[in-house]
Design brief:
Layout: E1 5-13, H1 19-28, E2 35-41, H2 48-58, E3 62-66, H3 72-82, E4 85-90, E5 96-97, H4 101-111, E6 115-126, E7 131-136, H5 141-148, E8 160-162, H6 163-167, H7 180-191, E9 193-206, H8 211-215, H9 218-235, H10 244-249, H11 257-266, E10 270-273
Parallel strand pairs: 1-2, 1-4, 2-3, 6-9
Antiparallel strand pairs: 4-8, 5-9, 6-7, 6-8, 7-10
């Protein structure tokens, strides 16, 4: 299938009239210009629909889908199905993409035809942990698969993948209540090679007041992460040594933040001080 658009950048949003402007503007200012910016409004009940309509009127690359209240997983699924680009790049509604992100990831996937998915490093501003850091993820397919037994090996606001995955039936699963992207990622990585770029190309804002975080229960999250970590060991045929990490995941939430940071660093997540 031929594509006239290089990348469709997808954003799903629910009741974020201020932050969605920042996210869309970061996409509109990309150095890669042949893009589509596809926003799925997930039934917002505030000023978000008006903000989106106004922005779309000013930039023909912006397309809005008002689908009613779908839920985040289904909204992501719909966005991928409707995307017109050769590649699909996700950005969460409260995050931003740095200007060269889409161009660098487009170039990587064009040159590495055996890879289906590419991520990047992130600047992370986390009010939950009171952290402002730079986080780098494992770069190679083998290291990323190993990391899956320990934790999520990418930032969701920094991923770009081939639209052909959607055409063959690989997509976000609307039945997933949370860890939606990691479940999707594992199914992709089971069939195809994946990578992360060494560049920091996204800024992720983790807020106590965000809709997703307010609904996300830490205990359930870690139980599910442990399950996916165990699944990774068997799917990716990792050494039995890696079985210890899904078990340790259940203890991790009880650790102080300072110890958690040391654990993350020791297990392959490079973290440095963020830029003020």
């Amino acid at each position: 299938m031929s594509h006239d658009i290089d990348i469709t950048a997808i954003v799903t949003v629910y009741n974020e009239p201020d932050l969605i402007v920042r996210a869309i503007e970061s996409l509109a200012n990309q150095t890669l210009k042949n893009i589509e910016i596809l926003i799925v409004d997930d039934g917002s009940s505030d000023a978000t629909p008006t903000v989106l309509t106004d922005m779309a009127a000013r930039d023909t690359r912006i397309r809005i889908i008002f689908g009613g209240r779908l839920g985040r997983a289904k909204a992501l699924m719909v966005a991928c199905e409707e995307a017109k680009g050769k590649y699909i790049a996700n950005l969460d509604a409260d995050d931003i993409a740095y200007p060269e992100r889409l161009e660098l990831q487009f170039s990587f996937l064009e040159l590495n035809l055996d890879h289906a998915w590419v991520g990047c490093g992130e600047e992370r501003r986390d009010t939950q942990r009171d952290e402002h850091i730079i986080r780098l993820y494992p770069l190679t397919d083998a290291k990323i698969r190993e990391q899956c037994a320990k934790c999520i090996p990418y930032t969701h606001s920094g991923i770009t993948f081939r639209k052909s995955l959607i055409n063959e039936g690989l997509n976000y699963d609307p039945a997933q209540p949370y860890l939606i992207d990691f479940e999707f990622f594992l199914r992709v990585a089971r069939k195809y090679k994946v990578a992360n770029l060494p560049d920091v190309l996204a800024c992720r804002y983790v807020r106590n007041e965000s809709f997703f975080q307010s609904r996300f229960k830490t205990q359930k999250q870690n139980r599910r992460l442990a399950r996916f970590g165990l699944q990774s060991v068997f799917w990716f045929r990792l050494s039995p040594y890696y079985l210890i990490f899904p078990i340790a995941r259940l203890i991790y939430p009880m650790l102080p933040n300072a110890i958690k940071k040391k654990v993350r660093t020791s297990q392959g997540l490079s973290e440095g001080q963020g830029i003020a």
